[in-house]
Amino acid sequence: MARRKKIFEGKAKILYEGPEPGTFVQYFKDDATPVNALKKDVVEGKGVLNNRLSEFFMTGLNAIGVPTHFIRRINMREQLIRAAEIIPIEVVVRNYAAGSISTRLGIPEGTALPRPIVEFYFKDDKLDDPLVSEEHIIAFGWAGQQDLDDMVALALRVNDFMSGVMLGVGIRLADFKIEVGRVWEGDFQRLIVADEISPDSCRLWDLRVDEHLERDQIRRDPAAMPDAYTEVARRLGVLPSNVTHATKPTLIN
Fold this sequence. Notes:
Layout: E1 6-9, E2 13-17, E3 23-28, E4 31-32, H1 34-37, E5 41-44, H2 46-63, E6 70-73, E7 78-82, E8 85-96, H3 100-105, E9 112-122, E10 131-132, H4 134-139, H5 145-168, E11 171-185, E12 188-194, E13 202-206, E14 211-212, H6 217-220, H7 225-236, E15 250-252
Antiparallel strand pairs: 1-2, 2-3, 3-7, 4-5, 5-15, 6-7, 8-9, 8-11, 9-10, 11-12, 11-13, 13-14
Helix pairs in contact: 2-7
């Protein structure tokens, strides 16, 4: 197979030049790097599961009219996506108090919020992805007011879809983050959901046994993380056929 040009490598994925203009190939790695890459592990098979899970969610969003960068899955670890100009802002939607909002505001973890709360974080690992306001975003030119309105609308539609899907398989969506990209369609700019949607970008709680099913596991109990990712894929019916009880993802120290 011909060597492809690497465009960008992040904590969990690599982007390669796509086979057609305006496309990339997104490769999912097995690296597990919570806390903005301050702690690193390798969970063998995690990339395979996240590829399948992101395909599942992105396909579902496309089907209900929420535009995403996803085109199709290529193989176990790669998918073809639309090239987009990524806005340097992470959009976080919170349904329940957990993580930094509990720390900042003293709200006990697990408390249902009065409504979904949308927050913005500037994408910069060196700065620990700081919380920013709409005023910051507009003043520094990261996005305009119309972009922000569209980003909030996209995030809330993703929240409606994801919350319903997860609840249907006994999982509570406490919070999640998305990245948003700009694409041009003729003379018109459009915002789309980009990056990925997987347990790496969601905080998921098992309603049946009160367990965490996302990358917070590596903070609490690294050995439980592979089981959690596999369980999410199993419940959603996207567990790859070659990942069995005996070959599920394995944490490598």
